[in-house]
């Protein structure tokens, strides 16, 4: 049974006590989304950008509480990250592509097809220190017109891809997921974690995060289940510098130790879709949950680059 120390935290393992600030309350920063997703912190600009998929817009929050439109229309953008040059990389459901926003604001298409056929609907994305871009491609954005445009998938499988933007080479590194979703590297980039959220539409389907060994920065091997989510599904997640995985779930944020054990939860009143660490000390956890953007200070430090 968890040890409840407040209305916000549940402690399942003493290791979680060192990762939280019990006196830090949960703050609702914004509450006018339809489905909040894809938060990414811009340290140099001191702001957070995230997606509001059904409203086809991206929003910007700055300390002090001001929220403004970053981009609209957004092509039903979902997951976002930054590359090592600080450029925004986004997954777009509407156009079924991965794009990069250049410093001058222009948009570069990085990937929109594989083996001569359109991608399904790129969902979430991470960038490795070598500049390669890794993203998932489930079918959520083409299942209906709510978060994209309804269409039949052209790809026979729902893949995890590795893109080398220097050469344009795109490779499917895993092809046996039901619905691959969030993904994140371990702090040393020797492992890649990938969520399978297929239980969102089939209760008998996976609701777990798998972990793979990264070989030569190009291939994934030794895949196995890292953890299962007991409430809801895993969607987006992030790692902290100690290798703990903080993942979205139906009842909040679940924190898993590097050994795969559930050590604690942060309870959120809405279903969580995604999250990211940010702030000047990388100790603020920003949480995109259904209609709202939340924040809670932690004692953990997120893996954040740049």
TrEMBL record:
Where are the active-site residues found?
235
Question: Short name of one Pfam family for this protein?
Answer: SGL
Q: Which UniProt keywords apply?
A: Hydrolase, Metal-binding, Zinc
| Free-text cofactor note | Binds 1 divalent metal cation per subunit.
Molecular function (GO) terms for this protein are: hydrolase activity; metal ion binding
Identify the cofactor(s).
Answer: Zn(2+)
Q: Where does substrate bind?
A: 123, 147
The entry's protein name is Gluconolactonase
Q: Does the keyword Metal-binding apply?
A: yes
Report domain SMP-30/Gluconolactonase/LRE-like region positions.
Answer: 35-290
Keyword Chloroplast attributed: no
Which positions bind a divalent metal cation?
A: 37, 181, 235
């Amino acid at each position: 049974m968890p040890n409840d120390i407040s209305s916000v935290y549940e402690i399942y393992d003493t290791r979680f006590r060192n990762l939280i600030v019990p006196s830090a309350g949960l703050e609702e920063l914004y509450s006018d989304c339809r489905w909040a997703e894809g938060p990414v912190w811009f340290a140099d600009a001191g702001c957070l950008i995230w997606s509001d998929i059904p409203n086809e817009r991206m929003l910007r929050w700055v300390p002090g509480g001001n929220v403004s439109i970053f981009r609209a229309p957004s092509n039903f953008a979902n997951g976002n990250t930054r590359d090592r040059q600080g450029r925004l990389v986004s997954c777009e459901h509407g156009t079924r592509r991965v794009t990069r926003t250049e410093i001058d604001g222009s948009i570069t298409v990085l990937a929109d097809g594989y083996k001569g056929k359109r991608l399904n609907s790129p969902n979430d994305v991470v960038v490795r220190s070598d500049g390669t871009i890794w993203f998932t491609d489930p079918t959520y954005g083409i299942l209906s017109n709510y978060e994209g445009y309804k269409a039949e998938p052209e790809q026979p499988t729902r893949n995890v891809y590795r893109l080398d933007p220097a050469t344009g080479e795109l490779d499917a590194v895993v092809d046996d997921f039901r619905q691959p979703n969030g993904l994140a590297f371990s702090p040393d980039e020797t492992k890649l974690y990938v969520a399978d959220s297929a239980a969102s539409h089939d209760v008998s389907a996976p609701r777990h995060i798998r972990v793979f060994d990264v070989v030569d920065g190009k291939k994934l091997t030794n895949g196995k289940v890292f953890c299962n989510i007991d409430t809801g599904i895993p969607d987006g997640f992030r790692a902290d510098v100690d290798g703990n995985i903080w993942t979205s779930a139906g009842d909040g944020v679940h924190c898993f130790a590097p050994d795969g054990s559930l050590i604690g939860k942060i309870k959120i009143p809405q279903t969580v879709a995604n999250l990211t660490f940010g702030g000047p000390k990388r100790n603020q956890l920003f949480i995109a949950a259904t209609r709202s953007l939340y924040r809670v200070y932690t004692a953990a430090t997120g893996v954040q680059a740049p």
